[in-house]
Amino acid sequence: MSDTHSPGLHPSRPRSWWGWGWADDHPDDAECAALGALLPGTLAKPLPVPRVADLRIGPPAVRPPASLARLVTEDPAERAAHAMGKAYRDVIRALRGRPGRLPDLVARPARDQDVADLLDWAGGRGVAVVPYGGGSSVTGGVEYRGDAHRAVLSLDLTGLDRVLEVDTAGRAARIQAGILGPALEAGLRPHGLTLRHFPQSFAFSTLGGWLATRAGGHYATGRTRIDDFVQSLRVVTPAGTAESWRLPASGAGPSPDRLFLGSEGALGVITEAWMRLAERPRHRASAAVSFRRFADGLEAVRAVAQSDLAPANCRLLDAGEAALSGAARDGAAVLVLGFESATGPVEARLAAAVELAREHHGVPAEDSRGPGGPGGDGPDAVGAWRSAFLRMPYLRDGLARMGAVVETFETAATWDRLPGLVEDVRAATAAAAREATGHPATVNCRLTHVYPDGAAPYFTVLAAGRPGEEVAVWDHIKSAATETLHRHRATVTHHHAVGRDHRPGYDRQRPEPFALALRAAKDALDPHGILNPGVLVGP
Amino acid sequence: MSDTHSPGLHPSRPRSWWGWGWADDHPDDAECAALGALLPGTLAKPLPVPRVADLRIGPPAVRPPASLARLVTEDPAERAAHAMGKAYRDVIRALRGRPGRLPDLVARPARDQDVADLLDWAGGRGVAVVPYGGGSSVTGGVEYRGDAHRAVLSLDLTGLDRVLEVDTAGRAARIQAGILGPALEAGLRPHGLTLRHFPQSFAFSTLGGWLATRAGGHYATGRTRIDDFVQSLRVVTPAGTAESWRLPASGAGPSPDRLFLGSEGALGVITEAWMRLAERPRHRASAAVSFRRFADGLEAVRAVAQSDLAPANCRLLDAGEAALSGAARDGAAVLVLGFESATGPVEARLAAAVELAREHHGVPAEDSRGPGGPGGDGPDAVGAWRSAFLRMPYLRDGLARMGAVVETFETAATWDRLPGLVEDVRAATAAAAREATGHPATVNCRLTHVYPDGAAPYFTVLAAGRPGEEVAVWDHIKSAATETLHRHRATVTHHHAVGRDHRPGYDRQRPEPFALALRAAKDALDPHGILNPGVLVGP
Where is this region: Disordered (chains A, B) (predicted)? Predict the structure, then answer.
């Protein structure tokens, strides 16, 4: 029995079963202690790295028939690794030895027909099926809660990991849904193409996961959400396989693809998609602009978002976020701007955007120009932010080991509501954290995605925990945040999906007739109610 | 009893009850005869303009309760005007005195609650409700077929015709669904804003109609489809009113709005929407480029669509279409390019696009530059095309009066399928026309919308009719076209919607599990099956 599992591109490199990413990238005990010292009220020494053996995992409640046995494992390490996603809530539950209900079995289909066969079997036996891609859900999207099903199967799709077909002239590719980000880009690179979708979880999430959760990418403006890059989908449902036609556009009824995008495994299992691609960018330029007041930064970002400059990157960090990431240490908010193009220089667009920022009291950083953007990196504000961005989830897990409460959540709202929303969320979450822990909390904010009509603020909460009660502390904070979002009619999630954690907010947000329609659609496609029970609809 | 009705902006100007647009814009008998002379096999003199009195309309099968009486009329002229849309098929049926089943009543709600009350009443009595905006459907979307319902109510939404609220900073407006295009733009103009959605039917179609049919606008690239401009929707369904939140983006489950967009009145009645707007463009430039070979034009258009130049207009006309519209008379295909911006000059982008076209053997027209685009007009190829574009539906009706068969249809496909598709559709429709009439037919093609991964070809068929059998002739031609589209897996409609005319193609195109889901959603929202029966789902 091993404490690691190794899917995807690096079969030799161990993934952490309980925390983010690569096991060997995790902070060691000394680094954890140093992180903990930055926050008041953390533990004296880190919680030990949890071991699968300590979970005392019993035998599965069901075993697969012989015809499916080759696809299925009951290995305890696999079952533990597939028990939850990677939210703070999940990490701390693993650290405290109290993970959610473990799946009885983990299946790795090798082709679409395997998925259909597994659904058939599970449907007939009342076995819940939880689709699992890279397992990076931060909203309880890949676990099972409750006891309404006699057994749980985690359907790990990472065996469906190939780029099957590339249409170079039409810039599209047929790609299996279980492919992880790096393998997907590696498969497209020889064709000079890219999906250009780089969420923070890129290395540890799959195309199918992005599609099922309507993921937002790294890019900050324009068509950043995965939805817009879908040409067609193949979805295996208990009621048959849905395959939409490859079309650049169609006006034939409500879009079939848009029903499955965001369906989080509750309506079917996405096994394949034709995705729209782009030429790889050859021109890049980036800059950082600082603002004394976050509110000025908001106005600058609105001006840029409403221009036709179309930056690839347009991230506004508040003072705390800028300090945390090393983008600025002088109490200023920082706007990170990045432009890119496959066809021509972008310096003029960058200059125009900087000029717009200047009109709103922005001060361009002297040393901020550089080969930034998603491909670049450097010793400047832009590069500092990017490095911190990718390291962040590991640091979160290090802080979790110190008993701290560290988590993020995101939303989106129209411009008119943004300034008040950001202030209210800050105040409500900080107050809830102090109430629950007796210690002050840090709440930082950045805008991750901006639109002509609004933006998506992303909040990071850093607080002391209450030893052994970290989940309750976080739930208390999150509940205050959700209430505040609801009061402002800001979405419960911009790109983290609903999963199980966001159900309280989601159930109040979606129009009730739409909920009726969704439930009816689910009953039609999943008559035995086995598909990812508890997300989106149902108890 | 009057033969005209006058909704919308020009209460004093009469709309035609049987044909396109304004009654006083219709060609007179002499012009009809001249048009007919252009085609072999047409009638010697035009069919008379049909009169409502000749339809001998009986009393309605139901009468509304007193509480709703103020909203409802049984005036025969209104019932005749609301009997059908404006397809060739509809026009010729009216000319031949055989319109579809007339609605028994026409209702004009003044507020959302009226819509809910009317649906309540109709649901309890088995009265079919056919939502009706501008009535410009060309796919049988606003008529009733069959006899499964005891009566039919046409729900004319043009009384809900106001811009209710404008968020200037966030560039959005709350607009009632029954507003016609010109009134909508007139309401936004004082704020310096525009929806920038100009379908050919602009003057005679409504926001709600655009939303319910996922309309494509005048603009040729990027976000041209109405879907992308929706911030939130308000939809009255028999199961309650669905109102989504105003959000720039959300990842909370499948998009509620996307289920109602394209639902064609079968799931609910869209009464209001918050729409994303744009600043009015101040800079425009356009050009025409001609190509000896249509295939070269296709390659040029693909290159432009895959660049980041983002023209507002990028329409490729084949030789026949160019000749018909006066854009060229030398047998060349013509590419009409237009750029616009609210923020800066667009000449450089135009020049770059023309250069791309030149690389694919395009020859820029010497005199083609001018203040073109949707706002401009002029004595050049660009302006000629635009004038012809707006006049086209009137000429169609003139030709219909000469017993000709004149109709358009559109599709979309990926680039790899386009050249073969266009050739096959041309050949199949021309052959079917000859077969049905004994005369040669003209089949022209233009690309109306282009995407990085494909384009939308739009076909115009001009053929002789067979006196009295025009509908059968057209159905024969259309059936051949639909078969050809299906063989190429090209969508049955890019932006004309499904209605009733496209059901044969649509039923084979949509994935069967999606059809199951859609039927289930319809049953949940419309338990009495009264909403626009026959479109999208059901018999």
Answer: 360-380
